[in-house]
ROK family protein
Amino acid sequence: MKAIGVDLGGTNIKAAVVDNEKGIVEQVTTPTQAKLGKDHILNRIAETIGDLKKKYEIIGIGMGLPGMVSKDQTTVKYPPNLPGWTVVNAAEEITQRTGIVCRIENDANIAAIGSLHFGVGRNFDSFIMITLGTGVGGGIIIDRNIYKGTQGMAGELGHVIIDYHGPLSNSVTRGTVEAYLGQRFLSRFATDLITQNPSNELYEKFSNDFEKLEPIDLTNAAKEGNKLAIEILAKSGQRLGYAIINYVHMMDIRKIVVSGGVSKAGDFLFEPARDIVRKHMMEPFKEGFELVYEDLGNDSALLGAAGLAFDSFS
């Protein structure tokens, strides 16, 4: 059984034919050209799909994109980085252009669906996915289905507040999870600590241009034994731990799957998080608790989009 997965971003449109057992069979990428507007983008998606559907028998299309997606997985509202998009029934638009049934989903939920079908999430019936990328997103899987809430917008895990006196991020208030663990915001936090330690190797390397400092630089330095890098990642991991406690206490889901570029710090991030959980989570919730890393990498969006098609149309 095969489906087409589409990952719509502000820069590129990625599409792939995905087999439900073998994974990605064929993949293509084309520039989004977002400034040319909604219809242009939808036509480009259809053209990209058209080349793929000629070669395979396809059951449906799944598409991941930024923005809030309706509960019926057809309509997106005000997606960022896509000028001219307000409220768009993108599923219907794609179906009309391709002749293939389509469903859409928020890109963070797509990552959770990808893990459910092709990653470590296959081992769990229910789990919470936390994506630590440029921002912080998430998806909630309950009984092997994505949890959408009453209007379809559940799972904005990055906007949960853990310190209302904390730093700003893309949220409307201070101190959200994203303000500590989103890539840009973690780098900002790291810059503040590094400038207070001018004798550290990280200061010597980045003091001329801290804009170049990325979380992977902290991870590499930590692996080399840099104590300041280890401390920065540990403090970030502690905040991740407090966020996880909130999620588990609220949802009673004990399996946590973490993905995204920041998560490549691995146990430099995860062990401090687990330590906070051990110390502060309510005792009954600790039973069966697991925090695991998802390593599907750049393929997760396409696999998740195809997984959405499998769930919707198989």
